[in-house]
Amino acid sequence: MGTHETTETAEPTEETVDWETKLRYFLNSDFVRSSPYWGIPFVLMGIAVYGGIGFNVAISLTDAEGLTPPDYSNLDLEMYSAVLGNDAFLQAAQNNLVLLVVFTTICLIFGLFLAVLLDQGIRFDDKIQTIYLLPMSLSFVVTAQMWLWMFNRQNGILNIIVTAFGFDSIDWLGNPSIALGAIIFALIWQFSGYTMVVYLAGLRSIPTDQFEAARVDGASTTKTYLRVIVPQLKEASVSAAVVLMVFALKAFTFLYALTGRYRPPNGTDILATLMVRQAFKFGKWAYAAAIASFLMLMALGVIAPYLYYQYRQGSL
């Protein structure tokens, strides 16, 4: 009889836990008790970021223009249709895409090249790292002014070098066919040091016995890096590429600092400059909001695959 009573007491069922007990457990959980610390920033971020995105989309569905308040009673996709039919938008989107791909690709290749050179144990490698990384610490405004002097057609250092070899001086920012290339060159100068540091950290985290094993197998230094070391830098490459693409989408500050107005040099118009010009120069708020929506989709096209990749790797 005594054993039977003990067995019934050791098997509690869910019916013995009422809703009041469950509520008390929930209110005493770490999730609820820590909510004052993470809840308030979460709500503020939600309002500032996702609320702003929602407001932008709502504006883009109206005909808001000038000082007239938006009329939300008649929402349509007219502005998106107008944006897609505008040659200026298509040219800005193309420039954005070229900037995104060329800038990111060359930065990665050049940064990897510098990292491999520094990984050979050359003298003063720490000082060289500092010199190459220094441009990234400068703001877009400072670097834009510096490159404005460098690109000067009369006394810029680039044209001094060009004319020293007997060629005519080049209007780097005034010629639409090369202006975007000049902008990309300046941005590569600023951010290639960042990719160098990312790759160098990845290289120095690889065990040295892999180099020694490849050397014992008779592989040259070039083959060792191409077939053994570089494939192991996939994580570093993905992270650096995403950061560079985000910087490429934020090139508005650099272009604005070059001219001090909403119109960048001919041939370098991107979606951000076109959007700001339509909004603050012409007062076409709905039209600019539609451009901003396309720019947001482009940013999501960069970030979403990275987040999915991190999710597949178990990092999210």
From TrEMBL:
Residues 93-308 form the ABC transmembrane type-1 domain. The chain crosses the membrane at residues 37-59, 97-118, 130-150, 156-173, 180-201, 236-258, 285-309. GO terms for biological process: transmembrane transport. Keywords: Cell membrane, Membrane, Transmembrane, Transmembrane helix, Transport. It is found in: Cell membrane. CDD domains: TM_PBP2 (cd06261). Belongs to the binding-protein-dependent transport system permease family. This is Sugar ABC transporter permease.
